[in-house]
Amino acid sequence: MFTLPGRRRTRRVLLLSLGLVCWWLVYHWQQHGTTSYVPSAEYSALLIARATRPSPWPTLPSMQWHATPADHLEIAHLLNQQPRQRSGKPTAATNGTGGLWHTRKMQVRRAAQHTWQAYAQNALGYDEYNAVSRTGTNHTSRGTGYFIADVLDSLLIMGLHEEYAEARDALVGFLTFDQRGTVSLFETTIRVLGGLLAAYHWSGEHDRELLRLAVDLGERLACSFNTSTGIPPETAVLRSDGMPFALVSSTAEVATLQLEFRYLAKLTGRSADFRTPVDRISRLLREAHKPDHLAPIYVDARTASFVPSADIRLGSRGDSYYEYLLKQYLQTLRTEPHFLADYQAAMEGVKKHLVARSTHLNLTFVGELVDLPEPRFSPKMDHLVCFLPGNLALGATMGRPLHHIAPRLLSAPAREDLVLARQLAETCVQMYADSPTGLAPELVHVRHHTLPSIDPRDLLHPSGDLLAYPADRHSLLRPETVESLFILWRITGEVRWRELGWRVFEAFERWARLHEGYAGLRDVTEVPPRRIDRLETFWLAETLKYLYLLFDDEDTVPLT
C-alpha cells in the first residue's frame, strides 16, 4: 500500500480537519444563525483554533461555546449606535438632583446609612454584626477591625463623612494587631489590609494612621509567605516568629493577595518585604501545569503544583485566580503582559470546556469539572461565578466605554467576550428573577443533559431552567451580580443593566432589611423568609457600593 511521507500526511490530515471545521461553521450558521451575517475571517480562525486544539481529556465532550450570528449582529448594532444613544446618560428631563437615577442612588446611600447606624449602635468595634440578635462577634479575642476596615471606602465614596469619621476614629482608637490569634490569610488581606489601603487611597494618601495600621498588619501577614516553596497556608498567625507550614492551599486564596501587597510595597518602598513574596506566588502558579490553562482549586504547598484530582471551577476556591489575572495586568498599567496572556488563555479554556447552554431556555452558564483526573461536566454554577460577566467586559475593552472605541478597532475575541459577558449577566439576573423572593440562592444547578434527573420541587421557577437544592437556597447578599451589572453599564452604556440592578436592590429592601440593619436569608424560596443572624461585611463594602456606583454619575470612580 502506498503511504504518504510523515510530514506530508500530517499536513493533509490537518488540512482535512480544517476543512471539516469550516464546513461545520457554515452549516451551523445556516441552521442556527442569520444568513445575512457571515463570520469574520478573524473569528472563523478563532473558532477553528479552539475546535482543533487538543483536549487534555479526550473522553470529555467539549462544550465548544461560541457566539452565534445573531449575537454578533446584536454587538454590531450596539457598536454602531450613536454615542448619545449608547451612553445612557440622563436626559434633560431626568438630570439633576431630582433625576430618577439620583433618587435611586440616594436610596442606596440611605441603605448604607441604615447598615452603619445599626452596627455602630449595637456592635461598634466588633468584627461581625449579627442583625437579628443585635450583637457582635470577633475573630480573635480583641478583634481585628474586620467590619470597620472593610466598609471605610464605601462610606467615603458615598459621601457619608460623619459615618466615616466615626468609623475611622473608632478603628484607630482601639485596633492593635499585636495580639494572639489565628486569622484567615485571604479574608484578612482583602478585607482588613485591603480596606485600610483603600481608605488611605481615598483619603488622598494623607491619613498616616491608616497607613501605619496597614504596614503593621502587612508585616504580620507576610510571615505566612516564609514556607519552603513560598505558597502560604490558608491561615495566618498575628504574633508568630516560627516558620509557617502549609500542606494544601486554596487556589483562589493564594492567587488573591497580590493587589494589596503590591500597593503596600509601592507606598512603603519595601518591595523585598511585600511585593517579592507575592510575585513569587504568581510565578509559581504561572509555571505550574494547568490542563488547557484551567487551574484546579487546590495547590500543594509543598511542591507548588496544582492538585490533579481537585475540581476545576470558577466558583468557590477558584474564582479569584481568574479575576486577578486581568486585574493585575490593569494594576501594573499593562506593563506585565504575561498576566493578560494567562487570562486570555484561561478564558479560551473556559469557553471550550465550561460554558454551556441550558436545555429549555438556552441560558448561558458556566459549569464545573469534577471527578478529576478523568472529569465529567457538572451543570452547577455558584453565585460567585457572576463576577465573570463584569470581568469579561472589562477585559474586552480594558475598561474603556464602547463609545470611546471605534467599532473597527474591537477585535473578534473582544466582541465574543462582550457577547459572553452579556449572556452570563442575563443568567445571573435570572437567578434572582426566578426566585419567589427575587433574591438569588448561593448556587444553582442548571437544566442540562448532563444533569441526571430533576425534581420539579427544586426548580426556582416552575417553567425555568434553574434548580436550587435545599442546602443551597440561602442568600448572603453577595455582590458579584451587581458588580457585573455596574461594569456592564459603564462599558456598554445600556440602561437595561441599571434597571436590572434596581430590581435586585428592591428585593434586598423588601426581604433583607430589618429594624436594626440587614440580614441574609435562610431560604430564598420561602415567603416570608427566615433570616440568618449574621451580616457579611461585603454587604456594605461591596454590594451596596456597586449599586451606588451603578446609579451614580459614570465618572465618579474610574474602572481603571
Brief synopsis:
This protein has 560 residues and is mainly alpha-helical. The protein has 19 helices and 16 strands.
**Unreliably modeled segments:** 1-18, 23-27, 29-36, 84-97
Q: Count every helix, treating DSSP H or I runs of 4 or more residues as helices.
A: 19
Proportion of β residues? 5-15%
Class based on secondary structure composition and strand pairing: mainly alpha
Could you give the distance between the termini? Answer: 63 Å
| Mean pLDDT value | 91
Radius of gyration: 24 Å
* Main sheet: strands, sense, barrel: 3 strands, antiparallel
What gross morphology would you assign? Answer: globular
Strand order of the largest sheet: 5-6-7
Number of strands: 16
Share in helix: 40-55%
Descriptive account of the structure:
It is a single chain. With 560 residues, the chain is mainly α. 49% of the residues lie in helices and 8% in strands. The chain is built from 19 helices and 16 strands. It has a three-stranded antiparallel beta sheet with strand order 5-6-7. Strands 12-13-14 form a three-stranded antiparallel beta sheet, with no helix packed on it. The chain has a two-stranded antiparallel ribbon with strand order 1-2. Strand 15 and strand 16 form a beta hairpin. Helix 6 runs antiparallel to helix 7. The protein is globular, with a radius of gyration of 24 Å. 46% of the residues are buried. The N terminus is likely disordered.
